[in-house]
Amino acid sequence: MTSLLELAAEKESAEVTDWAARAGWVVGLLLFIALVYWLMREGWKWRGTLQGDLPPLPVVPDDAGPVRLELSGRYHGSTTAGQWLDRIVAHGLGTRSRVELTLTDTGLDVVRPGAADFFIPAAQLREARLDKGIAGKVLAEGGLLIVTWEHGEKLLDSGFRSDHAAEQAQWVEAINDMIKISTTEGTAR
Fold first, then answer.
1. Which residue of 69, 117, 141, 159 could cross-link 134, Cys pair, CB 3.0 to 4.6 Å?
2. Confidence (pTM)
């Protein structure tokens, strides 16, 4: 019995937290996260360097003509046509932003607050369709307006999402009609 009483009488202290070791782990984790972000940023810059053969983006002509359609929404990026994961980052085409699209007889004006604006001449438009995804963005079937266009010697897909998704089908029809008309005029000459 005495041994039990002696054991009960012994005082034990709680284990002390080793703050130096804990701080070391936190600092190490923060350095690791910073390294990962730095590597991602360098990869983005390297991708832009590899896509340096892309010519400068066209600008809006002085006389763009009458407005056919307007849309406000989001620009989700551009990819190599048919390869929805191969993002194009050269000339700011990889930067997501708000967008104001204007379709005229001369082409598609893409105005992006906080990012580089660009213009897609009507002669360079190849196709418009509704799709479900583009690099980094996947929505329900038909949730994105994808415009395929030629820039330099490369075909690109640019993804847009309207604030009013119902109007995207109208855009597909209008752009594809423009392409058919310019193709018919080109063969008639």
1. 159
2. 0.74
Name every residue whose Cβ is closer than 8 Å to that of residue 18 and which is 6 or more positions away in sequence: none
Both tokens of 1, joined, read: 């019995």
Nearest to 76 by CA among 45, 104, 112: 112
Neighbour-count burial for 23-54, b at 16+ CB within 10 Å, e otherwise: eeeeeeeeeeeeeeeeeeeeeeeeebeebeeb
As given in the structure block, the two tokens for residue 156 are: 């690109």
Closest by alpha carbon to 161, among 135, 136, 142, 179? 142
Task: Quickly list H helices, the chain.
Answer: 2-9, 19-50, 168-188
Q: β-pairing, 133-134 with 137-138?
A: antiparallel
Q: What is the pLDDT of residues 102-119, one digit of tens each?
A: 999 899 999 999 888 999
Pick from 183, 145, 50, 57: which is nearest to 109 by CA? 57
Nearby residues of 1 by Cβ (< 8 Å), 6 or more positions away: none
Cα R_g (the chain), whole angstroms: 28
Of 157, 161, 168, 94, the residue nearest 127 (C-alpha): 157
Contacts of 174 (CB under 8 A, 6+ apart): 68, 69, 103, 128
